[in-house]
Amino acid sequence: MASGAGPQLPDIVSGWAVERPGPVASGPLVTVRRALPEPGPGELAVRVEACGVCRTDLHLAEGDLAPHRPSTVPGHEIVGRVAATGSGVSGFDVGDRVGGAWLRETCGTCRYCRAGRENLCPTSRYTGWDADGGFADAALLPADYAYPLPGDRDATQLAPLLCAGIIGYRALRRSALPPGGRLGIYGFGASAHLAAQVALAEGATVHVLTRSAQARQLALGLGASSAGDAYGRPPEPLDAAILFAPVGDLVPVALAALDRSGTLAVAGIHLSDIPPLTYQRHLFYERNLRSVTSNTREDGREFLRTAARIGIRVTVSPYPLSRAPQALADLAADRVHGAAVLVPG
């Protein structure tokens, strides 16, 4: 294990784990104190500076996603400093700023991995689901799946880029938005407010549809052409749409708003049931319905380059790590402005 003059790791890691999944009011998160193992081959031991709170963390806490292991520390938008490295690590040194994201491991040999579609790897593993994540003051990250991050930026501004940003970027590409096209965004939280900026920078007209008045104001401030109620009708037919809200009832609403040959991309890992669709009203004229599953590392690298190039603006609501349950509760109730981010210490 290599170590040096970088940040010191605590003897005991303090954080939160999902003990008994259930509604946030039932207290699914409990405090934990654990010894952090030394980093194994190819691993980084990281002192956490900030960790974003993703809707996937909420799904895991509430039981919408079945736990993969008991008492797992959630959190997969991790920003931290390398405190120690395991054997065989190259490209990262002690003291470097790194990011840990949702995709944690793939086999590298299946037909999906070989085709550059590692997001579909049948044996893929995920941070905060298959291994402890960043709702803690330290974590282990696989170096091959970590991202180098600038050391001079506020960690809370970087954390949401690592899932909300990356997944939003993949959803935007899955929506097949044509150059200069008309994009509808349903739901406007952490992921949506970043994807919208990429679309706007690329010349799109963006219409936002969300139940939150505060989110509608944010959308207009970022340059959206319109912002209305989630079940309303956009002012013009859409070439593409992205559904960020985990609400299946909005699928037929968004499909009906598409122009001929338009595509709806559903960005969430969990969605409530979709009501029956009418072929003529929702799918005819070659309208397309697509899902979005995780991301590839290349998606992450492309998005982080794009975010730096366009000067993406990240709206965050910081919470001390000690208030992680409140952050989840606020996310569940749509009380978070932009992206919620936990800050240890």
UniProtKB/TrEMBL annotation:
Catalytic EC class: oxidoreductase
Cofactor(s) needed: Zn(2+)
SUPFAM superfamilies: GroES-like, NAD(P)-binding Rossmann-fold domains
Alphabetical list of CDD domains matching this protein: CAD2 (cd08298)
Family matches, as PANTHER family: ALCOHOL DEHYDROGENASE 1-RELATED (PTHR42940), VACUOLAR PROTEIN SORTING-ASSOCIATED PROTEIN 11 (PTHR42940:SF8)
Family of the protein in this entry: Belongs to the zinc-containing alcohol dehydrogenase family.
Record's protein name: Probable alcohol dehydrogenase AdhA
Organism the protein comes from: Streptomyces gilvosporeus
